[in-house]
Amino acid sequence: MDILGACATIGVVSITVGMSVKMLLSHTAATVTATHKLVNWAKLPLALATISFAYGGNVIYPHVEQSMRYPRQWTKALWSALMVCFVMYISIAFAGYAAFGHETLSPILRNLPSGTVYHLILFFAFQ
Fold first, then answer.
1. pLDDT score recorded for residue 127
2. pTM of this structure
3. Which side of the chain, N or C, has fewer Cβ within a 10 Å radius?
4. Is 100 exposed, middle or buried (0-12, 13-18, 19+ CB in 10 A)?
């Protein structure tokens, strides 16, 4: 199940970033009307809550470290996992905000064309 979940997550990130870049390069209506701000203070609480949720797995860290075959490798494993999570979040954030600007919705999948989300769900449901 872990491998399936990781593959599904990487697939969703790849498709979301790919579609955002494609829409940005093709100058669709959503990307043409997008405006950008350096900081949107009104949405800062939502962003902080989302980031806190994303990195909220630290409650189980001691149990995971204890169950590892080589607990001395914990620092490397933790940094690797957090960097993968960081890269996925940053890639979606930059591609989504570049494409949709102030009209970016949460979750980002709501910004993609409806056929894309439907096919995305079908793709991962029948793997």
1. 53
2. 0.72
3. N
4. buried
For residues 16 and 112, is the Cβ–Cβ distance under 8 A?
yes
In this structure, how many other beta carbons lie within 10 angstroms of the beta carbon of residue 22?
A: 15
Residue 1 scores a pLDDT above 80: no
Helices (H), the chain: 2-26, 29-32, 44-54, 61-67, 74-100, 114-125
> Residue holding tokens 């997550």?
9
Range of the domain at 54: 2-125
Distances (CA, A) of 92 to 20, 66, 75, 96, 104: 9, 33, 26, 6, 11
Residue in the structure block whose two tokens are 């969703």: 12
**Nearest alpha carbon to residue 16 among 126, 90, 103:** 90
CB neighbours of residue 99 within 10 Å: 24
Cα(127)–Cα(123) distance, integer angstroms: 7
